Amino acid sequence: MSGQKSSLRPIVVAANWKMHKLRSEALEYLEDLGTWMDDHPEGLGTRVEVVVSPPFTSLELAVEHRPPNARIYAQNMHFADQGAFTGEVSPAMLRDLGVDGVLLGHSERRAQFNEHDAALGEKVVAAAEFGLRPMLCVGETLEERQGGHAEEVVRDQLETALGDLDVIKATSSGLSIAYEPVWAIGTGETATPQLAQEMHAFIRDTLSSIFTAEIAERIPVLYGGSVKPENAHELLSQPDIDGALVGGAALEVDSFSGIVAAGLDVVSGSEARA
Ligand code: PGA
């Protein structure tokens, strides 16, 4: 594995708002983020992509006030296009709003809402069919890591959720993966860049075996778990860490934009070296 970052993949920095922000707060955030992005046009939208993932109630507003060059992702969806599924939202409904993509299988959904890999497989396929960019979240718990099963768990999650996705759709859908070790989410505990890099390289190998090596080289693999402006640069400098899925530090534009700025700095450094 070379120590260079691949120019085949952008850096993707995604804000997962989780269950935060009323519409007025969402609007203020999007306007401030848009201003910051306007002031930093170089590389944004091409080498560094920005994603904002609000709760359902702010999705329409986020699409209407989407900062130029940012993408709006939902945090979940059902796999069916319609039906008797009280409380659920379909991929057709998200497309109808103009949403760009969707987070799937976040560990909070797996642990608290019975999200299973098999249903996630159907969601990934449905997102791709409806033109929504899937971001599949995977990651092991502390017990699984301490028991020496981290790789096995992550491989199983990837194989089950991606096994039915057409090879062509693996890149044309805009698929990305977010590796979020459960023990690092919202705990202030970040995986070391080296540990994260090892798992990301393993994920890329697994993607090669599910699809092809060429396709695996094009799928961004983001890291998530207590990413903040202070640790973003070192994480994003790792050859197989292609971005960050950020919770707590993404709730304020100042700290989220600090992470985007770290991404811009990393790509400009690697372009200068190339
Ligand atoms: P965190 O959350 O940055 O607050 O750890 C990340 C996530 O759950 O996506």
Question: Could you explain how this protein is built, in words?
Answer:
With 274 residues, this protein is an alpha/beta fold. It has one domain: TIM Barrel (Alpha-Beta Barrel), CATH 3.20.20. Helices cover 45% and strands 14% of the residues. It is built from twelve helices and eight strands. Strands 1-2-3-4-5-6-7-8 form an eight-stranded parallel beta barrel, surrounded by five helices. Helix 7 packs parallel to helix 9 (193-210). The longest helix has 21 residues, at 253-273. It is globular. The mean pLDDT is 94. 2-phosphoglycolic acid (PGA) binds at residues 16, 180, 185-186, 224-227, 245-249. 2-phosphoglycolic acid binds at residues 16, 180, 185-186, 224-227, 245-249.
> Which molecules are bound in this entry?
2-phosphoglycolic acid
Mean pLDDT, to the nearest integer, reads 94
CATH topology term: TIM Barrel
Element pattern in H and E: EHEHEHEHHEHHHEHHEHEH
As a percent range, the share of helical residues equals: 40-55%
As a percent range, the share of strand residues is: 5-15%
Query: How many H/I helices?
Result: 12
What is the terminal-to-terminal distance? 17 Å
Strand order of the largest sheet: 1-2-3-4-5-6-7-8
What is the domain tally? 1
* Annotated CATH architecture: Alpha-Beta Barrel
Tell me the radius of gyration.
17 Å
Low-confidence stretches: none
Q: Output the CATH class name.
A: Alpha Beta
Shape: globular
Structural class: alpha/beta
Query: What would you give as the CATH superfamily?
Result: Aldolase class I
Number of strands: 8
